[in-house]
């Protein structure tokens, strides 16, 4: 078995992502983003991200993240134009608990087998250099499989 993780993110993109999630959530509401990247077989590497409230200005208004159809339309247009795929999604939780809420489990952002949903603790007021405490949830046909920062699923890399 290869030790290549399923999803790789450069430290620079992760650092920028955590900064944006923190800023947009203002430490009082959840925020989130789609991770855009390229797939090679079962593996994917992240090239950029797109915050929910960029796609849909009302996405954070309820305190938890929701994306309406215009937001999804904007997302697919951006993916097509940049020739990138949605390889994962990420959202923040208020406290240290990065298990999925009932809402998270019932409403996957991308209900595709193998899709990864990340949850970042403390409204992303957290380290920008490590994956400590990040919840990693994998959507499978028969339900979710959850982990806390497993190295085989998600890894930060030094290269872009
Ligand atoms: Zn959640």
From TrEMBL:
For this entry, the protein name equals JAB domain-containing protein
Is the keyword Metal-binding assigned to this protein? yes
Q: Which InterPro entries match?
A: JAB_dom_prok
Identify the taxonomic lineage of the organism of origin.
Bacteria, Pseudomonadati, Pseudomonadota, Gammaproteobacteria, Lysobacterales
Q: Keyword annotations for this protein?
A: Hydrolase, Metal-binding, Metalloprotease, Protease, Zinc
Gene Ontology terms: biological process: proteolysis
Q: Name one Pfam family in it.
A: Prok-JAB
Which part of the chain is the JAB domain? 22-131
Give an example GO molecular function: metallopeptidase activity
* Organism for this UniProt entry: Metallibacterium scheffleri
Q: Does the keyword Hydrolase apply?
A: yes
